[in-house]
Design a protein that fits this description.
Number of helices: 10
Keywords: Signal
Number of strands: 23
Signal peptide: 1-16
Domain F-box: 1-42
Structural class: alpha+beta
Low-confidence stretches: 62-70
Shape: globular
Distance between the termini: 73 Å
Oligomer: single chain
Protein name: FBX15 protein
Largest sheet: 7 strands, antiparallel
Number of domains: 3
Mean pLDDT: 85
Strand content: 35-45%
InterPro entries: F-box-like_dom_sf (IPR036047), F-box_dom (IPR001810)
Length: 437
């Protein structure tokens, strides 16, 4: 029953975030909290106009009453929309400045952590059950590596796994990211769908990565790891590893229901030579347990001749079994560490693998971050330098495969990578270069 003039007077003392929250109360508040007079005042207090224009604006604001009338013959909500878009553009400009600096080893921006903080970006998972009810898990722990960020969720109130249908991963950004207040789920935010995973028959349809005494790990592409309690087969934790390559775009430029589609590559037309094959490629490889690095290596001048193309793949040999000068040791405990409110542990013989392949122009060509496991091979080491058990690690997606062999040395209690081969899909290469291999 309060007159609109009184409500507008009250709303005129609120900041932008508070106005957006008030607008969620009901239709009347939404209409009044979008008043052009209020938002024009907010807009020019944050983005002052040039001196001559600013003077005229202040004169106009003095004679414009805070009412439901349209200011300056603008449509309702014009200055509100203009202010929000200006704030988003300002933050985007800051973020783009931060990601301009590229690490020459990885070909990726080297200030990703600062860029994520500047954008206010965070991530949530939404579990949907068979009755279409959504369960939102907000709080997450972050761990930053050279090429990826690992996001870890745990809760004491996970829904029963048997009733769950999907898990959705969203990037979440504040609608007004330039505010000085700390990020909170109580401020206006927008969601961007990054990935959607099917949880039907999780234990039967997905890949079992490993287990310890308490949990069993299951992997789903891209980069999802689900930990289940062995006793009850219920969710203990969820971990997602996101590669930095176009991470901000995937997390911010899509929509709540549609994933962001990466733009096609523009091929270097004067360097396409199907007869020669791939050449001058670089690989940066990280192996970590989600928090600590086991191995970090850069391999340059990789190539694949025409004769190495078979079965729909181009072969890039990174570490050769016969060349022991390039064999690489892994440091520390190889395993995936996990932690909940009450328990923590490490699942051995599995790890997170981060891969960035750069083409001859040093552009990211194939990138992923995913959990992988090490399986005991039936092969016996025939190398004089290594007498121990052989383990194999294989990863595959729609763009390629990674095949690695490691040997365990009992004397030094460490793993050595003795073979590492990349297989790039010819379909991926043809799409990248617009040619035909």
């Amino acid at each position: 029953s309060m007159p609109p003039e009184m409500l507008l007077k009250i709303f005129s003392y609120l900041d932008a975030v508070s106005l957006l929250l008030v607008a969620c109360v009901n239709k009347r508040f939404c209409h009044l909290a979008s008043d052009n007079g209020i938002w024009m005042k907010i807009y020019f207090s944050h983005f002052p106009a040039k001196r001559g224009i600013q003077k005229n604006m202040f004169l106009r604001k003095e004679i414009v009453s805070l009412s439901c009338a349209v200011v300056e013959d603008r449509k309702p909500g014009y200055w509100k929309e203009k202010y929000i878009l200006k704030q988003i553009a300002a933050v985007k400009t800051r973020v783009m400045q931060l990601v301009k600096t590229v690490d020459p080893r990885t070909g990726l921006p080297c200030k990703n952590q600062k860029a994520i903080k500047a954008s206010g970006l965070s991530w949530i998972i939404v579990l949907k059950d068979k009755n279409e009810k959504e369960h939102v898990i907000e709080k997450a722990d972050l761990s930053f590596q050279d090429m990826s960020v690992s996001i870890f969720w745990y809760s004491t109130r996970w829904p029963c796994l048997d009733v769950l249908s999907t898990l959705k991963l969203f990037g979440v950004m504040p609608l007004l990211p330039d505010q000085s207040r700390a990020p909170s789920k109580n401020i206006p935010r927008r969601r961007t769908l990054i990935a959607e995973y099917n949880l039907f028959h999780l234990t039967e349809s997905s890949v079992a990565v490993g287990c310890d005494k308490l949990v069993q790990l299951f992997s789903l592409n891209p980069g999802l790891l689900v930990g289940l309690w062995k006793e009850s087969n219920e969710i203990a934790f969820v971990m997602v590893s996101l590669h930095y390559h176009q991470l901000l775009e995937r997390s911010a430029l899509g929509f709540a229901t549609v994933q962001y589609v990466l733009p096609p590559n523009k091929p270097v037309l004067d360097d396409v030579d199907p007869e020669y094959g791939l050449h001058d490629y670089n690989l940066h490889l990280d192996m970590h347990n989600g928090k600590h690095m086991c191995m970090c290596g850069t391999f340059e001048n990789l190539f694949c001749r025409k004769g190495d193309i078979e079965n729909g793949y181009l072969k890039l040999t990174v570490v050769s079994l016969k060349d022991n000068t390039k064999h690489i040791p892994l440091t520390g405990t190889v395993g995936l560490s996990w932690e909940t409110a009450a328990f923590k542990g490490i699942v051995k013989n599995c790890y997170m693998m981060d891969v960035t392949v750069l083409d001859e122009t040093q552009k990211p060509f194939w990138c992923f971050s995913a959990p992988v496991c090490m399986e005991l091979s039936s092969k016996v080491s025939s190398l004089y330098d290594y007498m121990g058990h052989i383990y194999a690690t294989d990863y595959a997606d729609s763009e390629g495969k990674v095949c690695a062999e490691l040997v365990w040395l009992d004397e030094t209690k460490e793993y050595f990578i003795i073979s590492l081969v990349l297989y790039i899909s010819t379909k991926k290469v043809n799409n990248w270069y617009g040619t035909n291999y």
